[in-house]
Amino acid sequence: MNQKSNRPSRQPQRGRNRQVGTRTAERAAARKRTRMILVAVMGVVIVGAVIAALLAGGGDEQSSSSTSTTVFDAAAVAAAVTEVPASAFDAVGNGTATGGPEPVNLTPITQEGKPELLYVGAEYCPFCAAQRWAMVAALSRFGTFTGLSASHSATEDVYPDTPTFSFYGSVYTSVYLAFTAVETETNEMSGGSYKPLQKLTAEQEAVLAESGRTGIPFLDFGGKFLISGASFDPGVLEERNGPGIAKLMADPTSKISQAVLGAANGITVAICGMTGNQPASVCDSPGVQAAKAALGL
After folding, report:
1. 249-276 confidence digits (pLDDT tens)
2. How far apart are CA 206 and CA 159, in angstroms?
3. Which of 33, 36, 109, 121 is close enough to 217 for a disulfide, judged by CB 3.0 to 4.6 Å?
4. Alpha carbons 27 and 177: distance in angstroms, whole number
5. Which domain holds residue 50?
């Protein structure tokens, strides 16, 4: 009797094992594909959220950390500031500006036959940070800036991290006047004081000494007018980012526009006093004339 003929065959079992193994591998591969799809979807969601947050940064209600409020595209924001319509300046007049130019008789500084507007400030200074918005708006009515950079006031000072521009490294071109900016210190601490940035020349130091003023921001308009200190409360810029400030400057009903454009009109009055009231389209505009009357100039 052939014993082997009575033994059950092992071959069908091995076939079943191979089938089970194949199905297990397929299920594992399917699970792996599912995980990869979920990871990809989560990545898209995260990227979308980041993009949305960045886009929201340009809104007028954005506020939060110093990073979100002070970092901005300086060229784009400067362009928005220079494009504020004349109608907004006219509607604001002197606005809520609390300081403005006062007549003086100082030794004038000139460059290539043009009267010079001298600005002395510092990057850490929150009052300088506020004043620069009005200065860029006003000076852009007489010429053009290139190379403005985004900056902010010191974290350790009052009105911390106020978003602003820095004049350091910028160039201003105008047929009517020369503009010289001296940012004496950065907004970074080193050994208990702010890092030095630019030094005054002997001629500039003489102007400050002659004026009897020591505070910043300091603006000398060709020896004819003087502004010492911010022309409006920096607090109106709190919890706003660069794009948001520029956007609200174009809305004459906003608090920011009333403060910044009001100060800009006052600065414009002083510049017109340097340029012989040129260009007339700016100097004779209703907003500038309203600020001039409010300042008693």
Report:
1. 999 999 999 999 999 999 999 999 999 9
2. 31
3. 121
4. 77
5. 15-56
